[in-house]
Write a structure and sequence with these properties.
alpha+beta, single chain, about 80 residues, about 30% helix, 5 strands
Length: about 80
Amino acid sequence: MPRYYIDVRSHFGLDEDLSGIELPDIEAARIEAMKVAERLLKSWAGMLPHYSSEIMIEIVGEDLRPVLIIPCSEIG
């Protein structure tokens, strides 16, 4: 199974997923990334809207290239 890394990019910088997760395909990685985004948005609920609107979830493939970028503004 391929390994995907779910990174979080925000106003504060890049939080890289150093271990990754093995998932069957990009759709499974997208679902996992959405879970990460939902948890982040809940824990950062008090953040100024300007900062929270800039949060992006990046799914990176085994070749360390982004395969999908999800703006958190599209979640929830």
